[in-house]
Amino acid sequence: MHLSILEIDKLSKCYFLFDKPQHRLLSYFFPQYQNKCREFWALNDVSFSLKKGETIGIIGRNGSGKSTLLQIISGTLSPTAGNVQLQGRIAALLELGAGFNPEFTGRENILLNAAIYGLSREEILSKLDDIIAFASIGEFIDQPVQHYSSGMFVRLAFAVIAHVDADILIIDEALAVGDALFAQKCMRFLEEFKKNGSILFVSHDSGAVTRLCDRALWLENGNMRMLGEAKEVSEAYLEHLYSEKQSVSLSERAELTSDEPALAPVPDYTHWYDARESYLQASPLRADYRIHAFDPDAKEFGTGKVVLENICFRDESGRPLSWVVGGMKVSLEVALQSLSPINDFIVGFLVKNRLGQVLFGENNCLFSLDGPVQLLAGQRYVARFALTMPYLAEGEYVVSVGMASGSQGEHVQHCWRHDAMVFTVTGGHVVHGLMGIPVGHFDITALE
Q1: Cβ(342)–Cβ(372) below 8 Å
Q2: Cα angle, residue 60 at apex, residues 78 and 416 outer, rounded to 5°
Q3: Residue 254 neighbours by CB distance under 10 Å
Q4: What mean pLDDT do residues 264-290 have?
Q5: Which pLDDT score is estimated for 251?
Q6: Most buried in the list 3, 5, 9, 92, measured by CB within 10 Å?
Q7: Which of 319, 268, 327, 323 is nearest to 296 (CA)?
């Protein structure tokens, strides 16, 4: 059983806001001016624990209290109420430049920051070359950091916290700044660090939270909205964001559906054809994809104006498949019914691995540029995407389906289902990367 390395108990932070700066000054000397302030609770009664070896993601919109929470845990901000119990060394990467002296060089700031984290001079000097190599900022290491770009700041700050032997790392949106190569390098380090250390990770990228974190905490207006398994919390947060953007709320969805006439019987999709009967591959490296049955009662969100009736793969003869083989040409078929007239209809899908990483996806926006899709009320439709199945590593995958109206950038979600289809991959030859693609031909020619 893992012991808690961090305990947060009923943590709250209140700021006192004054209409005029002089009222704040006078309030220190004259009690009657204290009544001229307004209370703003940036955090309100937040409690959770972080176990050794656990990673918790913290999500929420700007102003929800994420940074305030991390600053209190880091010790740079005092709480109004509540307690923080910490065991071990903590290293934090908060706002850019925090803890850096702009007039010091990068090398001098490494010595300063590492000393702040409690390392002796001998320990710092023994790690200095590794820190500089990890930062990869070249000759700028001996230039004042006031001349650094935001990306160089992140490189240097992350390199320091990666080498101070911390028990807990706090990462606050810093990886959103900088180039993709360094971000990938940091993610690889975090994946390795979480084997023994604990991480608090703040990001607006729900895919990164789902992939990296064991649990997630959703903050809203300083309050705990949800704490639980990372995938579950991230999906609930995404659903909340969509519901707030749309004119029809999730509560109105039930009223809309109840006013409509009963749906006609759904066609029978249970007579599947096993692709292995005609698509034989004797190699033990063949990737077999077992398609799980469609669940018509799975969780979804949206206005409810479009109903998802089924999703399946079909072969080139139009037969629904219960088994697919990597490299096979298939069509992904989405069966739906429109309960209301829909203009500028969009249907799309995303294929994700079990950690929530999006591997690939598509929608009809580019295909429908010359003629936007219109749906009639009460009419059934079938949308099809023709594709060649990539080669995937062993594991479980999900297909998310979204049906909306509008444009790529601005649209109203009518039906979004996170786990519209689930399939399991066994066998295969993918050992590097997330997936492989079918290659039609290879040759090698000697040049004269």
Answers
A1: no
A2: 165
A3: 10
A4: 65
A5: 46
A6: 92
A7: 268
Of 345, 347, 343, 323, residue with least CA distance to 333: 347
Task: Identify the band that residue 211 occupies on the pLDDT scale cut at 50, 70 and 90.
Answer: confident
DSSP state of 85: E
Query: Which residues have CB under 8 Å from 197's CB, separation 6+?
Result: 53, 166, 167, 168, 169
Closest CA to 435 of 329, 356, 352: 352
Q: Classify residue 443: in a domain, yes or no.
A: no
DSSP secondary structure of 201-222 = EE-S-HHHHHHH-SEEEEEETT
Which CATH number characterizes residue 34's domain?
A: 3.40.50.300
What are the E-state strand segments in 3-36? 4-18
Looking at 188, 222, 240, the residue that finishes a domain is 240
Q: Residue 183: inside a domain, yes or no?
A: yes
pLDDT tens string 278-314: 554 566 778 889 999 898 888 888 999 999 999 999 9
Residue 395 has pLDDT above 60, yes or no: yes
The distance in angstroms from the start CA to the end CA of the chain is 66
In-domain check, residue 444: no
Paired with 403 in beta bridges are 347, 415
What is the C-alpha separation between 427 and 318, in angstroms, rounded? Answer: 26
Q: Rounded to whole angstroms, how far apart are CA atoms 79 and 102?
A: 28
DSSP state, residue 69 = H
Verify that 270 and 391 share a domain, yes or no: yes
Bigger pLDDT: 444 or 173?
A: 444
pLDDT tops 80 at residue 235:
yes
In a domain, 117, yes or no: yes
Which of 240, 268, 292 is the C-terminal boundary of a domain? 240
Task: Say whether both 234 and 253 belong to one domain.
Answer: no
pLDDT score of 75 more than 90: no
> Containing H/E element for 415?
strand 411-427
- Looking at residue 174, what is its pLDDT? 63
Percent of the chain exceeding pLDDT 70 equals 86
* pLDDT beyond 80 at 213: yes
Give the chain's length.
Answer: 448
CA-based angle 386:205:242, to the nearest 5?
Answer: 70
pLDDT of 380 > 90? The answer is yes
Per-chain mean pLDDT for the chain: 84
Q: Where are the alpha helices (DSSP H) in 248-298?
A: 250-259
Residue 34: left (phi > 0), alpha (psi -120 to 50), or beta? alpha
Q: Are residues 208 and 226 in the same domain?
A: yes
Q: Which two tokens stand for residue 152?
A: 């160089």
| Coil, helix or strand at residue 159 | helix
Question: What CATH number has the domain bearing residue 337?
Answer: 2.70.50.60
